[in-house]
Amino acid sequence: MKHLTHLAALCACLTSLPVAAHVQEVMNEPDSVYLFSYATVNDAGRSGLKLAWSPDTERWFSIGNGYGYVKCDYGAWGAEKRMFNPHLTRDEKGLWHCAWQLNESGKEWGQATSPDLMKWNPQSYYLQSPGEGTGIQGSETRKKAVVEGVVEQGYMQKVAWEEVDRLLKFVDYRAYRDQLHNERTEQDAQRFAGLAPVSLQLTVRPEEARPISDKLIGIFFEDINYGADGGLYAELVQNRDFEYTPKEGSAQGWDHGYAWSVWENGKSSAIQVATEHPLHANNPHYVVWQAKPGSSLRNTGFDGITLKKGEKYDFSLFASMPEGSKGGKVVVRLLDAQGKEVAQASVKVKAGDWKKQTAVLTAQADVEAAVLSLEPELTGELHLDMISLFPQKTFKGHKNGLRADLAQTLADLHPRFMRFPGGCVAHGNGIDNIYRWKNSVGPLEARKPMRNLWGYHQTLGLGYFEYFQFCEDIGAEPLPVLAAGVPCQNSACIPGKLLSGGQQGGIPMEEMDAYVQDILDLIEYANGDPKKNKWAKMRAEAGHPKPFNLKYIGIGNEDLITPIFEERFEMIFKAIKEKYPEITVIGTVGPFYEGTDYEAGWKFASRLQVPMVDEHYYNTPGWFINNQDYYDRYDRSKPKVYLGEYAAHLPSRPNNIETALAEALYLTSVERNGDIVSMTSYAPLLAKEGHTQWNPDLIYFNNKEVKPTVGYYTQQLYGQNSGDTYLPADRKIDNSRQDVQRRIGTSVVRDSKTGDVIVKLVNLLPVPVKTQLNGLTQEEGQVTLQVLSGTPTDQQARPVKKEISLKDLSQYEMPAYSLSVIRIHLPK
Ligand code: AHR
Could you list the residue range(s) of the whole structural domain that residue 468 is in? Predict the structure, then answer.
């Protein structure tokens, strides 16, 4: 599958341009020259394999100013992806082989092949030199060459001049492409100096209407940035299960006692935890408290516990006391920052095994950051676990439910599907960290909490049941994504164990049957008959006897396309296809819009005839502006596309009018290609202020407030105004400049449910665009106009809505930097 953009045309032109200045001195073009391949030592080869050429082995010229032709992909981001002593050779068929050492030990090797040094096949890793014909063997020794004034060590070989010439043009092409991708509105004053208002004639051709996906806008949910615990999941007690696990790199105090303390005589001390008599094997830790009147056990919640005056809160805990103990009352209080009580209730505990106790507290005041305080009226050893506090007002009032304001903000997007649980959380940091759905269902105390890939704790309280229920509540199709039997491609690696549980590892093949069965069981959990299947029965017991009607399942997330991945994916795919042919399986094609995993992933998915693949790309606004034809050239006979993660990223990662409009512009091209692009979801979705691992996100929040971004409104305007039929339209713009034309996006769709026609107009220019809309012949009809506009750096812009008439539309003017959504309610 070849996806050269319109830049391809430019590349073709480049081949006929005079070559760069440093080549001029050998314009009589030798038949052959020397190629020098090396990696720079000062960055431990992180910038990859570099190339230089020379006519005589004396004067060396860099090819691409240090461009890394292939970078090592082994290990976790940042620290591990290194390349030592790369050795480039070529076999008798002309295939290039590059082999390098992965670390200073020199024992572990990486290897990759390329037909042309520009495109590289997937990398392999070895515990010893990969051997003959792979770039390792050979009599050459490393030589020194001075490239750009720096002495480098590498290998030399003779190659035809035309190969170097091709590489030089390739880097020129990349440089040009980078320039386009770096297009930013901050350059607009200069770029568009003197630009007069533009006119657009948009003539709709309803007779050429064609069906498009009605599920284009969905949401990507991942427990990143405290999206679940401390976020969408309404639990107010942090570390309710005492399962926070200490680990290297954890924040100070991040352990089983995190967010808890014992208070006595005005002084706090750490809690004591034990594991001897757990409430459940999956939840081994509990607090052991020598309780006595005057002492208290306190929890600070997630940045405090925010309370609303008059609202009720469900408190619960599990308690046990050694036989023979005298039980008694434990007062449960909520205290404001001054220690003043704002709510009170009590529970009774007694000797014997674990028992659940509950109480309801009513807040007497609004409090931003309250503390939960358990105050015993008894003396004795008390064991407590699963200490929980939930607002009764959750979304739709569900027990163990979701935070109402955040959930409503998601519902307001009108998402047609919801992805869960990631992202990288789905496949985890190493195989032991893969998200296992069975750990997330059933009684809360039996769920198996774990540290998530983003470095904090997941209770899995917002598990698969809560997820399916939320999808049903908001009318979104569930789209679970499960690991393809391999962990995150950026998992840490275990030294000396290349193919074990880390990045390159996979679930051992002898365990794969059970893993495949787990995935099939999820389908039963969602859709099965409770009378026939134990997982379906579990769903019914959780309160949902009817099926959730699962139709999609994603397998894999941005995985490296290696034999280990392929073998496991194929097993899972075939098993689902055989048993549940009605389920659409979505494959994965790497983390970028091009490159090795993208190409290998597409090839693999096409061969297996996977119905849909999940593409991810976080790119600059300039990329989105200049790649609106990305899907126009996709092969219609190949798998469909789920653009599962995307966002426009500016250097300081704001979410502003510039990024929101770049996304809006691109979405016009997605609607145009809605025959092959079936779904899209912006990522990430949620971010708690003060706890973000990733920016930008769609919705920021703290305990009190939800703060949708400008990008949120792009998604909402598209989500609330989606269609299922695309109406092609001719565009006539009175300015022939390409960079002007590319800043104007148009899309016309019809929604068959309402009969409404929806016109989306995006103007990323600093001048207004007068728009004449032709081809929609109706004389009368009510029109709802919504406009999102602002200066490019504006982070507060909100859509403005008004009702207008069809006549007003005949001369509509798009404001500078705006998205206009025109919904025409045509009389039926
Ligand atoms: O959206 C944040 C992360 O980006 C996802 O977890 C991962 O899939 C991608 O790399």
Answer: 219-227+396-719
Which residues surround ligand 1 with Cβ inside 6 Å? 222, 224, 422-424, 557-558, 591, 645, 683-684, 694
Residues 372 and 403 in one domain: no
> CB under 8 Å to 693, separation ≥6 — which residues?
224, 225, 454, 455
Confidence (pLDDT) at 17: 39
Cα of 778 vs centre of ligand 1, distance in Å, is 46
Please list, in sequence order, all residues whose beta carbon lies within 8 angstroms of the beta carbon of residue 581, skipping any fewer than 6 positions away: none
Give, as one character, the DSSP assignment of residue 709.
-
Atom nearest to 454 CA in ligand 1: 6
Q: How far is the CA of 307 from the centre of ligand 1 (A)?
A: 33
| Per-residue pLDDT reduced to its tens digit, 265-288 | 999 999 999 999 999 999 999 999
pLDDT at 502 over 90: no
- Would you say 724 and 211 are in contact if contact means Cβ atoms under 8 Å apart? yes
In a domain, 186, yes or no: no
Q: Does the pLDDT of residue 496 top 70, yes or no?
A: no
- Helices 7-14, 161-181: axis angle to 10 degrees equals 140
What pLDDT is stored for residue 827 in this prediction?
A: 67
> Looking at ligand 1, which residue's alpha carbon is closest to its atom 6?
423
Beta bridge partners of residue 110, listed in sequence order = 100, 125
Is pLDDT above 60 for 358?
A: yes
In contact, 518 and 437? CB cutoff 8 Å: yes
What is the pTM assigned to this prediction?
Answer: 0.94
The arithmetic mean of pLDDT across residues 755-768, rounded, is: 97
- Domain co-membership, 409 together with 361: no
Last residue of a domain, one of 719, 754, 787: 719
* Ligand 1 atom closest to Cα of residue 683: 1
Residue 740 is classified by DSSP as H
Residue 655 neighbours by CB under 8 Å, 6+ apart: 695, 696, 697, 698, 709, 710, 711, 795
Task: Please identify, among 393, 414, 430, the residue that sits at the C-terminal boundary of a domain.
Answer: 393
Q: Of 630, 423, 425, 593, which Cα lies nearest the Cα of 602?
A: 593
The residues annotated as belonging to the active site are 558
Do 660 and 771 sit in the same domain of this protein? no
3-state SS class at 186: helix
Q: SS3 letters for 451-509?
A: ECCCCCEECCCCCHHHHHHHHHHHCCEEEEEECCCCCCCCCCCCCCCCCCCCCCCCCCH
Report yes or no on 189 lying in a domain.
no
Q: Rounded CA gap, 654 and 659, in Å?
A: 8
pLDDT tier at 6, thresholds 50, 70, 90: very low
Give the distance (Å) from ligand 1 centre to CA of residue 468: 22
